[in-house]
Design a protein that fits this description.
With about 110 residues, this protein is an alpha+beta fold. The protein is built from 2 helices and 5 strands; from the N terminus they run E-H-E-E-E-E-H. A hairpin with a 4-residue loop joins strand 3 and strand 4.
């Protein structure tokens, strides 16, 4: 339904009480700009809630998800300000699965 060409994940936690304006301000602060057809992901301090902001070229979409048990697999802030994800990694992340193991980083080269 919404075309997404790039997916970015921010490592620093975000206050989940805000809406569109605060999420968009956070995207501009962390990533420099909100690019069309790009999704930006943020988590709260406990990593049990995430927000996804998508700029579809015309407007802004904001989605939220909360886990009632467990946590989303989220990189530490010390590993960098942001990560880029593949669509398969995004699918795994929103389900609460270890998304870092999806794609090229999960390749086994030695037995």
């Amino acid at each position: 339904m919404i075309r997404i060409d790039a997916i970015w994940l921010a490592t620093a936690p975000m206050d989940m009480r805000g809406g569109f304006d605060s999420a968009l301000a956070r995207v501009v602060h962390v990533f420099g700009a909100a690019h069309p057809h790009t999704a930006y992901l943020f988590a709260n301090q406990r990593a049990n809630r995430i927000k996804v902001l998508v700029h579809d070229g015309i407007g802004i979409w904001l989605a939220a998800r909360r886990l009632h048990q467990g946590r989303f697999t989220w990189p530490a802030s010390a590993t960098g300000v942001s990560w880029t994800l593949s669509p398969a990694q995004l699918d795994a992340l929103v389900l609460g699965l270890p998304w870092q193991r999806i794609g090229g980083s999960g390749v086994i080269t030695v037995v």
